[in-house]
Structures are given as C-alpha cells and as structure tokens.
Amino acid sequence: MLKAGVLGAGHLGKIHLRLLQQSENYDLIGFYDASETQAKSIVEEFGYQLFNSIEELIDAVDVVDIVTPTFAHFDVAKQAIKAGKHVFIEKPITNTVAEAQQLIDLANAHHVKGQVGHVERFNPAYTAVASKIDNPMFIESHRLAEFNPRGTDVPVVLDLMIHDIDAILSVVHSEVKHISASGVSVISETPDIANARIEFENGCVANLTASRISLKNMRKSRFFQRDAYISVDFFEKKCEVVKMKDAPETPDDFAMILQNAEGVKKQIYFDNPNVPSNNAILDELDTFAEAIKNDTTPVVSLEQGKKALEVALKIIDCFAH
C-alpha cells in the first residue's frame, strides 16, 4: 500500500481523507491544514493524524494529495516532487501555464508521477461512452450551477468550465486553432457566466457554456460525429448513444428510417450502454495508485492538466478584449 497524506482539509479535502482511508491502495498517514481551528476540529471528529508542517507530512508519505486553494498548488507540489514524492493535484493544476510546465519538468527529473483531479473523466456516464466518441466534429456543453459563495474567488471558467475543456481535449485529437469567448460578472468580481467557442485544426468546433448563478444544476455534453450522436449527463449520470446505419432492404415495422433528398435511407438505432454506479473521486485516486505501481501514465497526466489550464486561460483572456 502507498502511504498517502492530504494537504488542505477543506470541503473537498475532507472527502479525499475519507476516501483514501477507504481505499485498498492507500494507507492514509495523516493531513496538514494551514487553519489550526479547522485542523483541530477534523482531528476531534475523525481522529486523523495531524502534521505540524507541510515538510513533516511530505517526509512521512509516498503520495501527496494536494487539495489546497489553487494559488498554493505550485509551491507545495514543487516541494513534494523535489522530495521524490508522487503528487495528486486538484484542478486546476496551477495558477499559470509556466508553473504547470515547471512541475512537469520537475516530475520528469525526479521520476515521480503526477495526476490532476479532473474528476469528470471518471464520471460513470462519461466512462460508459468515452470509447464510442470517435472524431467528433461538433460538441456542445452546458455546465450550470446554483450559486455557492465557495468557488467565487476564481473565474467560472477555472471553477466549472475547465471540467468540460479537459473532457473535450481528451477526445478531440487535434490542436486548438482559435478561441473566442465572452463572460459576464453578475455577482462576483470575475465572470459568473461564460460562453466559449473552441475551433480545432481538424475542423471540430466546441461550444461551451458555464454559469454559477443558475436556478438549477445542469451538466450536459453532446458529441456529434459521423453517423452518431452521443449525449452525456454528468449530473444525472446518464448517457445516450444514437447511431445511424444504412437501412436494410426490408426494415421491420418498428425500424426508424430517415431518407435524405438524394434518396439515401438510414436506420436510427439506440446503443445505450449500461452505466455502473461508482465513486468518481475514489476511482481517480485508485487509478493514480495503479499508475504508480505499474509505472504507467496516469489517466489525467500533469501534461493534460496543463493543456486544460492553457485553454481556460486563453478563454479568460478573451474577456479582457
């Protein structure tokens, strides 16, 4: 078992502590949190071991799980990597692309693994169809959340939209050609609603909308590709795959047949996969352990975390122009 420690024990940090303790891949050693009050209340409630400093925690473990605010990611990850420890970093990877690149270079130099917490890649609705997404040419995503003061210290792009950016970059195997975007600040100092259009070199277009002042929660992505339409509901954990094939000469009575202007007939059929229930955060932590043990590339590598951040920052940059 890998010895693990958590840096940062806020809302998400507490979830990570509980899941690392449950996991069969990790031995939870303890945690560190900058807030003494917060740290003591967690020790009293759960009995986890509290370390007096970041250095002490890093020394005691094999894997450092970084769930601090984003501005602290770079410094603590750098410290952990230099000490030869593997790092799991919550999204976004760092504040800047230059910092992310520095972590990648350090991880390579010290022969350690790093994974970024883009948890939607482990959402069962997404994993059920990911292998069916093949060269999509139009993608539409909506990620709407009810207002929550937690998270408004960062733009909605880094808080919410970055999940969809990462998922899209993982299925579109082409470089980004052009980005245009607009954002509106309604209640926060940074945009609360944003829309972005990402154009790729291969002609694929992705249209993304994110809001954190919606009246209802919605997290949906739709992928359109040759002869198929794939819908993923990350919130309800449901997915739908609609495919088209050449219609048979004598279709049965219940077949759905479309005919275009040229007289070509296509049959529509549904290929909805089974969606098993899972805990996505536990899955991402466990796959990271597997990558360390088997010396393979983590599902969401530091490089992929950097690419998602790069696109997110370009979108934010559009707001200023």
TrEMBL record:
Per UniProt, residues of the GFO/IDH/MocA-like oxidoreductase domain are 155-216
Q: Which Pfam families match?
A: GFO_IDH_MocA (PF01408), GFO_IDH_MocA_C3 (PF22725)
Where is the secretion signal located? none
Alphabetical list of Gene3D superfamilies matching this protein: Dihydrodipicolinate Reductase, domain 2 (3.30.360.10), NAD(P)-binding Rossmann-like Domain (3.40.50.720)
- Which intervals hold domain Gfo/Idh/MocA-like oxidoreductase N-terminal? 3-118
Listed GO MF terms: nucleotide binding
Q: What is this protein called?
A: Oxidoreductase
Source species, please?
A: Aquimarina atlantica
